[in-house]
Amino acid sequence: MNVLELKNISKRYGAIQALNNVSLAIAPGEVVGLMGDNGAGKSTLVKVIAGNFAPTSGDILISEQKAEFQKPLDAQKAGIEVVYQDLAICNNLSAASNVFLGREPTRRIGPVKVVDYAFMRSKSAELFARLKSETRPRDLVHKMSGGQRQAVAIARTLLSDAKIVLMDEPTAAISVRQVAEVLNLIRQLSDQGIAVVLISHRMPDVFEVADKVVVLRRGELVADKKAAQSSPEEITGLITGAIEHA
Amino acid sequence: MQKKDIGLGILIIVVGAIVYMRNPLFLSPINLGNTANLIGLFGLFAIGQGFVIMTGGIDLSVGSVIALLGVLFVDMVGKFGVPWPLAVAIIIGLGVLIGLAHGILITRFRLQPFVVTLCGLLIYRGIARGYTAESTAGFPFGSSYPQLEWLTIGRSFGIPHSFLAMLIVAAVMWVILHHTVFGRHLCAVGKNEEAARFSGINTRFVTVMAYVICAVLASIAAIYFAMFTKSVQPSSHGNFYELYAIAAAVLGGCSLRGGEGSVIGIVLGAVLLQELQNLVNLLGIPSSLNFAVMGAVILLGVLADQQFAAYRTRKNTERALGLLQKS
Q1: How far is A117 from chain B (nearest CA, A)?
Q2: Are B112 and B97 members of one domain?
Q3: So what's the ipTM on this one?
Q4: Cβ–Cβ of B192/A103 closer than 8 Å?
Q5: Where are the alpha helices (DSSP H) in B156-240?
Q6: What domains are there in chain A, each with its CATH number?
Q7: pTM to 2 decimals?
């Protein structure tokens, strides 16, 4: 069973064909490296999956069920979470507050509903433990390393029982050691049966974690193969167009 | 309590001790009572200003709101004989409307808070002066409103009720800021509005509510000031009060970049400002130098805070490096 299936997805912006008949299937727990040059359609594809806008034609199937996303919240409800490149977290808040941002748990004291900090801390500590991250719930995010921030952003996705996590360049702006940390986080997600779509320019990172590599070129899907059966050289060729198709 | 609040508390005590040594009248019950009254009056609207500043905005219209609503309140109660509870409700209702107008102009029409509230400053002051034709609004001779006066300028055990009102407001706002979902969202919106929006927070609502809170607290303060001064001179009443509020909030640890601040800090900021005013009087400094003293102390305080923070980070780094070298 596939957790996500795209059938002949096309997206047009006026005269520009951003995506052309893209078909793709992702299994639970699978890590997919989505690669392509700037303007190849990676972001458009991610935005279509995340419900930011509807495809011009084609179908999206979530767990074999046809899905229609009118807005990002619909996709979120269907189990699709996005970890944004700039991370969408608030530096002035603690890790726990960020994990629960927008979904704060409350308890009643008389007539007032107050934020349940104790639950927020214990639950996010549990999520960080599941990710095998050393992030502490009380720490402020602005004092954290890039890797720990990623852990916070990823813990957010665990909170909502996501089936698919889309990650936009999670290793772009962080140090080598932290990259290893983030790749570990991705493996943790995969071990828990969550599919990860990793958009990245960094070939070594993709080959380190991805089960499958998908290449887009000018809006068309030119490769969809097991990472083990491919090589960075082949993928580079596919991205630039030196190799027509794989 | 945050570290900054404790630092501010220490500064208040140190300044107080110095003033007391030079002039023991500082701790006389009369002086403390009068100062507490002023702290209450200025603290009321400084708390509201703090909420707006935490969203990364600013409200420059506070002083004019206090003048306009003060004139209207005095006229309603004194001239038109509106029962005072109704007049209070109307004034607070007007505060809500003013806050909504500011908030909607800022969020829906995407105008800058500085511009919107600067126009508010000019408009409300202008209306107050135009409406009264520059004449002072006051209560009729010999009139008295015992319950209203008890609530606003009365005292219990020597403590002015304006000060108690400010404490109650501060307690409520403390719960709202630090222990409700709205408070969390306020901090998130102030620091990183985009992130807050991606998290599903209604950022427009949060911002509008901050301006409503500010204007409502300003309207309550307007009633207290009107009752305190008993007459409202439309061209000078409340002049520069927005700056007192901003100063108290910034002293209290609110960052003008948004996302940071504490209610306790704002109250302590208001306390320090009034202490400085009092210091000018008690130490026989010409009162024309009032603003200069206040400005200088705030500048020194902020500067010292910055230097101290830098020193602390340096010490921490050194300690961390030391540990690394040992291991």
Answers
A1: 9
A2: yes
A3: 0.74
A4: no
A5: 161-179, 181-191, 193-198, 203-229
A6: 4-93+157-240 (3.40.50.300)
A7: 0.83
